[in-house]
Design goal:
The chain is α/β, with parallel strands linked by helices. The protein contains 17 helices and 16 strands. The longest helix is centred in the first third of the chain and has 31 residues.
């Protein structure tokens, strides 16, 4: 039999701080029937009076009575500690901490701005804010929109469904932004995750934005025979072509306003495009892209890159069709067999962003020009980007740019480390006044390994005008002779000097600024600085971000 002498001795403070100090009152109605102390303390009443073998024992009766009093004191202590805790949480509210005096409505607005700017990841805002203090936690728990974003990882969350259920419960009736992502090999068999899918489907009526980066079997499980078809505004689906999906049946199709897809086939009849305003797709088949654009009569923005060839699902138009709402196009150059621009006429196009991805795609330029001539749009911006890959044998004379007079923004990245002649050739072409290249150019951004003497001369001639000093081809030029402001010719205005509406020129060198670079460019620095004052922004940087133009 265990006696008080056998029990480990605990301090009075350790007894008071036991976690289970608060028990329901009916558990203390008959202390003599207890097997042990409900407060998990061994001292001073670890001996249980009911263990007494005697029928009549005044000692055990007194012990039982004392136990009753002890339990009562414990109850009273628990109530006092609870009251103290409630008072303690109000200390900051009464003290001079301004933020704790804000009403709940103001706090919710502050929380909203924190949530928008939070860079720690989705689903972290309510947890971070709720950990500050109990009042903030109460506010987060009573604010459904703070729980309206759920990022589900099936392998992790299928093992903790209670957490998923609780998160969704806290969002109450708020529209849900749901992301389900599962990294997998196409050849692998996806686990069913049936319980998790069932939980997510039970909230389908609240789905506002869906991002499904999962095997086709999971998409089938989430959408097939869905009772409450959601009013999805944003939808993203990434399913490789090789991952075949079973047929999905839905009472009503999804009609997203924004649709993102990568390597995904839209053969399933679960989508309609009459609400679509923004399209962002990559590596989908040509006929599927044309089908979406034709059906998306309200489409205003379209990003379509690396388009695959005709897939045989939808018929292609026999002649270009007119789309009156598209105002923004971003695409990559492609072979004629996958070039969707040949089927479009966009008379209201305002912005065109064209990524030229290979020198072998110069054959795409006639298709691009035919599209622009046919559409004759009021272009505000035509951005043309080209990364010159070292694996391609670029000829480097930039002659094809002559056929693209509508370009307003040109960005070139020359990755050939030993092809500085391409930079020289570019500025030579831009200086070709009798047959001007890019007459509408407003912004030029060039990343180049280095620049030669001739390159700096041609650049200075392009930027500062035809009065550029020190032609390296002129034997009497004296290229290294410094210039003074007094020796500089008077510069005409930008409008007089160029027919181009040039606004900015940015050049980044892939080498470090050193004495050799300084020797080549110093003769032109005063001229460039003076030309810069006429209003065109000029930035010259080395690869470390050092300003090689405005150096002291």
């Amino acid at each position: 039999m265990l006696t008080a002498m056998d029990a480990p001795q605990l301090s009075e403070r350790s007894i008071i701080l036991q976690p289970n100090y608060k028990m329901h009152q009916n558990e203390f109605s008959n202390p003599q029937t207890r097997d042990r102390c409900p407060y998990n303390c061994l001292t001073p009443h670890s001996y249980i009076a009911t263990d007494c073998p005697l029928e009549l024992c005044s000692i055990c009766t007194n012990i039982a009575n004392l136990d009753t009093e002890i339990y009562g004191v414990h109850d009273q202590l628990g109530e006092l500690l609870q009251k103290r805790r409630e008072m303690e949480r109000n200390v900051n509210v009464c003290h001079d901490i301004f933020i704790h005096r804000f009403p709940v409505e103001i706090m919710i607005i502050i929380f909203h701005f924190f949530d928008v700017s939070n860079e720690r990841g989705l689903m972290t805002s309510p947890l971070i804010l709720g950990a500050v203090c109990e009042r903030w936690r109460d506010i987060t728990l009573s604010t459904p929109w703070m729980w309206d974003t759920a990022v589900i990882h099936p392998l992790r969350d299928s093992a903790q469904l209670n957490v998923v259920k609780e998160w969704l419960r806290r969002s109450q009736s708020a529209p849900l932004t749901l992301t389900v992502q599962y990294k997998y090999a196409v050849s692998a068999t996806c686990p069913p995750f049936e319980d998790l899918i069932s939980v997510l489907r039970s909230h389908s009526s609240r789905w506002k934005a869906l991002k499904l980066l999962v095997p086709s079997s999971m998409i089938h499980g989430l959408l097939h025979n869905l009772e409450d078809v959601p009013n999805v505004v944003r939808l993203r689906m990434d399913i490789p072509h090789e991952d075949k999906m079973e047929n999905i049946f839905m009472r009503e199709p999804l009609r997203p306003k924004t649709f993102h897809a990568k390597r995904t086939s839209i053969q399933q009849g679960i989508l309609k495009w009459d609400n679509l305003t923004r399209l962002d797709v990559a590596a989908i088949k040509l006929d599927e892209l044309i089908h979406i654009i034709r059906q998306g009569i309200h489409l205003t923005e379209c990003t379509a890159t690396y388009i695959a060839r005709y897939g045989g699902t939808f018929l292609l138009p026999t002649a270009p069709f007119i789309h009156k709402s598209l105002k923004y196009i971003k695409t990559t150059s492609s072979h004629i067999t996958s070039n969707f621009l040949q089927y479009l006429t966009l008379p209201f196009l305002r912005n065109l962003h064209y990524d030229f991805i290979s020198e072998n795609d110069w054959t795409a330029i006639p298709t691009l020009n035919a599209f622009l001539d046919r559409s004759d749009p009021p272009l505000h911006k035509f951005a043309f980007t080209f990364n010159v890959d070292p694996q391609h044998n670029q000829h480097g004379d930039w002659a094809p740019l002559r056929s693209l007079p509508r370009i307003t923004h040109l960005a070139l990245d020359i990755e050939h480390h030993y092809r500085s002649d391409m930079t020289t050739a570019l500025f030579y072409r831009l200086n070709d006044s009798p047959d001007m290249y890019l007459p509408h150019l407003r912004e030029l951004k060039l990343t180049t390994p280095n620049m030669t003497h001739e390159g700096w001369y041609q650049f200075d001639k392009f930027f500062a005008g035809k009065d550029s000093p020190n032609d390296p081809n002129d034997p009497g030029g004296g290229i290294h002779t410094p210039l003074t402001d007094a020796s500089l010719p008077a510069l005409p205005s930008i409008a007089q000097r160029h027919t181009r509406p040039l606004e900015s020129v940015i050049i980044h060198l892939k080498e470090r600024f050193d004495d050799n670079v300084a020797e080549m460019m110093d003769a032109y620095v005063p001229h460039l600085l003076k030309a810069e004052k006429s209003g065109v922004y000029l930035e010259l940087m080395d690869f470390l971000g050092f300003d090689i133009l405005h150096r002291s």
